[in-house]
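User: Predict the structure for this protein chain, please.
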Amino acid sequence: MHYDRAEIMKATWVIVRRFQGNGEPFNSLMARALVSAWFTAKQEVSVARRVEQSRREAEALAARPAVELAAEITGLENRSYLGHEGQEKLRALRTAHKAASEREAQEDKRAIIDSAKGRFASVTFTKKDGTERVMRVQPATLKFHVRGAAASEAAQKAAQARAERHPHLMPVWDAEAQAPRSVNLATISRIAVNGAVYNFAT
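Assistant: Here is the predicted structure, written as structure tokens:
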């Protein structure tokens, strides 16, 4: 977080123009306007830093195993008195537990699909438009149709950025369309692979 001095000066001049003509000397008005603009800027940066800190803390909490978070939640729920701080912590833990559970479920689905390797897996998921789709995928085939390490540096960075922004999307090889596709792990309801069938609540 940093101060945008250009924006601070713009805010300063807005104040100066608003109060010009009230008889106050220009130097005094300019000094007062600067103090006001800097005070507002510091308040905004302070709020932004707190928001960023809260976001990072929430991400760190959600990165923990769901079972650990569940144990902490149970411990707090069994207390006779929580107080404001305890209630806030309980809310944060419940939010983190939900995120951690979803992340772990997606990791499990990814591992199950990957276990097919060169064989086929049938994946049932819900598309963005709400319709259900069954896709026959062959995980090991995908690597022969993407450039991977042979791709340009820009392409590799773009692929990494997409993976970080959309961790719930898993690239797969659609065996019927003979093309690379993405499957939303969060909406998968069924996976059939290696003679076993896995059903998931969505």
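Strands lie at 121-126, 132-137, 169-174, 179-184, 188-193, 196-199.
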